[in-house]
Specification:
Elements lengths: L1 H8 L7 E2 L2 E2 L6 E3 L1 H25 L4 H6 L21 E9 L2 E8 L6 H14 L9 H19 L8 E3 L6 H14 L5 E2 L6 E3 L3 E3 L8 E3 L5 H4 L10 H10 L4 E3 L2 H5 L4 H11 L7 H10 L3 E2 L3 H6 L2 E6 L9 E4 L2 E4 L11 E5 L5 E6 L2 E14 L2 E10 L8 E3 L1 E3 L5
Parallel strand pairs: 3-21, 6-7, 6-10, 10-11
Antiparallel strand pairs: 1-2, 4-5, 4-18, 8-9, 12-16, 13-14, 13-16, 14-15, 17-18, 18-19, 19-20
């Protein structure tokens, strides 16, 4: 415990403990290069399916978007395209199975777990005498952020250096420090952090910081768009809708872009799987092979699993950290979460796959935990990845388990 605390306290402003509990483990999961290659290959191939599907979604009727779980408030903004790529920072959640890697979610709009994998994982792997599988990815992330800011500024007609603001809820240490990390990595001249509560939206005109300076580009990476659309002030002014109107009018730029939100609904996975089951000509034979290899059967109804007597997961189209996720069999609940924050969203039903287990070193000694891989796609390229270790449903109390490559150090 002393070694652990001494190591993590040497990393400035890192949340190695969350909710008063150990979060970052003083341990390092050994990997082989073939493991890394498989994760990167899966990430690139899964993203290629989402990208193609997202392009098609921009042309579907509004009723289809409603079916996929998007609210009516989102409809006027869903088809906007302001960047040459669908998301700047996205993260797939992957499960290693006997049949290979399977994707269970795509957090394309507001993924966290960024600083852990792009910076801290390398520090831990070095401490344990292993090579960092994410070496060089922090530099690539910085270039990707600058590239997205350049394209965003161009689309809204800003010349010269745009005024870029990174924002988050100031009281949430993980969200705040994630944005501070992105700000540091981006290295954009004049960019700054401004807490969400200090932002001012002037309907039809502009967005301002707490000092009254007009913001050109707002990076709201940890504030989900579905929550932003519902945001109202104390006097019932629709802050979120008016902000999005300014984005639509190109009076302010926003990152991640709306196209990232369009991929965020888990119901998209059900649509992709449904088209695959029907052997839709929309996907090429090669793309059908990718879907069959990496995707799990996913539906908007539980009937297929009940008929086949298969165990499945019931999850909301939008949600985070295992909240509102149930494990079910024959229509009966086997596991129910303590939190049901996202129960009002459209539900998705996905084949249940058991997470693999490993012994991990905690402050309380060795502990068996289930492993989940988080793998980032940054400007359409597979990037940093890493592991969460916890219960059979990964939640906000799951550990960050660093990983390294055996037989080397960097």
């Amino acid at each position: 415990m002393d070694r652990r605390d001494a190591f993590y306290t040497s990393i400035p402003s890192f949340w190695d403990r969350l909710y008063g509990e150990e979060y970052a483990l003083y341990d390092c999961l050994p990997l082989e290069q073939k493991d890394i290659n498989l994760i990167r290959e899966a990430t690139n191939e899964i993203y290629s399916i989402y990208k193609k599907f997202n392009h098609m979604l921009k042309g579907v009727p509004d009723e289809t978007c409603i079916t996929l779980g998007f609210s009516e408030k989102a409809l006027p903004f869903l088809k906007m395209a302001l960047l040459p790529y669908e998301t700047v920072i996205g993260r797939f959640d992957l499960i290693p199975t006997v049949e290979g890697l399977k994707v269970i979610e795509f957090n394309s709009d507001t993924p966290t777990f960024i600083r852990e994998l792009f910076e801290v994982n390398g520090l831990v792997s070095k401490q344990f005498g292993m090579a960092n599988p994410n070496a060089g990815e922090m530099e690539y992330l910085g270039k990707a952020l600058r590239n997205s800011i350049f394209h965003c500024a161009k689309q809204i007609g800003v010349t010269g250096h745009p005024y870029v603001v990174f924002t988050a809820h100031e009281e949430d240490v993980e969200d705040r420090e994630t944005m501070m990390f992105l700000l540091k990595v981006a290295q954009v001249k004049g960019a700054t952090f401004v807490p969400l509560h200090q932002l001012q939206v002037d309907a039809g005109k502009a967005v301002y910081d707490g000092m009254g300076n007009k913001i050109d580009i707002l990076y709201r990476h940890t504030y989900p768009l579905e929550a932003l659309l519902e945001d109202v002030s104390d006097d019932q002014f629709p802050v979120g809708i008016e902000f999005m109107n300014l984005v639509k009018q190109r009076k302010v730029g926003m990152l991640n872009p709306v196209s990232a939100f369009l991929m965020q609904s888990k119901a998209v996975m059900a649509a992709i799987w449904g088209m695959h089951e029907l052997r839709s000509p929309f996907f090429t034979e090669r793309e059908h092979q990718i879907i069959n290899r990496y995707f799990l059967p996913t539906y908007l109804d539980e009937a297929p699993f009940v008929e086949r007597k298969e165990r499945y997961v019931k999850k909301p189209a939008f949600g985070r950290e295992g909240d509102t996720i149930e494990i079910r069999e024959n229509g009966e609940t086997l596991y129910a979460p303590t939190k049901t924050t996202y129960d009002h969203y459209v539900k998705v039903y996905q084949k249940y796959v058991e997470l693999p287990k490993a012994l991990v070193a905690t402050e309380a000694g060795k502990k068996e935990a289930h492993l989940l891989i988080g793998s980032f796609i940054i400007n359409e390229k597979a990037s940093a990845f890493g592991y969460r270790a916890g219960e059979h449903i990964t939640d906000n109390l799951s550990y960050f388990l660093p990983c390294g490559v055996k037989g080397g150090s960097e």
